[in-house]
Amino acid sequence: MPIKTIDATTLKRWVDSGEAVIVDVREPAEHAAENIEGATLLPLSSISSKLLPDTKGKKLVVHCRSGKRSSSACEKLLAEDPSLEIYNLEGGISSWAGAGHAVKTSGKFFLPLDRQVQLTIGLCVLIGSILTYFVSPLFVILTGFLGVGLTFAGATGYCGLAMVMARMPWNQGSGSSTSCSVK
């Protein structure tokens, strides 16, 4: 069954009329940096239909930064409970803000999880290449390992590095300030 999607304008109308409950599946620090007022934080790494807020006759709308992680969340939730009326916000909070709707921000800079993963892999490939050239050809194993990881992430949608990075202290929202999806 295909996942239902919703655009930011329709969601705004639903929110204003009290028809929707919004769940943010990003990590705590991403939510703390910017969020849709009233959205419940339920990170993708721990999402379960048992943890969902009460919807009582309302539509459940899930969002992330761009719509990829929230699509994974919808799949996971529907697999647990096919009776859910659940929607994925097309384009995530980026499309919500782009449509001119209010986004609550902390004013602190936060590097999104997918960019953290890209930066980490890029630096490791660069360092591995330099070490291969100047120190030992055996360092090519590092770049090969990263290539296998990226191939696996692209083929399955599961990114182990993103899961690890999501648990780093700077990605936990309490007081501190995603493409590779986290499944």
Question: Can you put this structure into words, describing what you see?
Answer:
The chain has 183 residues and is of the alpha/beta class. Helices cover 44% and strands 13% of the residues. It is built from seven helices and seven strands. It has helices spanning 8-16, 28-33, 68-80, 92-98, 113-134, 140-156, 160-166; strands at 4-6, 20-24, 34-35, 40-41, 59-63, 86-89, 104-105. Strands 1-6-5-2-4 form a five-stranded parallel sheet. It has a two-stranded antiparallel ribbon with strand order 3-7. Strand 5 (59-63), helix 3 and strand 6 (86-89) form a beta-alpha-beta unit. The chain is elongated. The relative contact order is 0.19.
Write the layout of secondary structure elements.
Blueprint (H helix, E strand, L loop, with lengths): L3 E3 L1 H9 L3 E5 L3 H6 E2 L4 E2 L17 E5 L4 H13 L5 E4 L2 H7 L5 E2 L7 H22 L5 H17 L3 H7 L17
Parallel strand pairs: 1-6, 2-4, 2-5, 5-6
Antiparallel strand pairs: 3-7
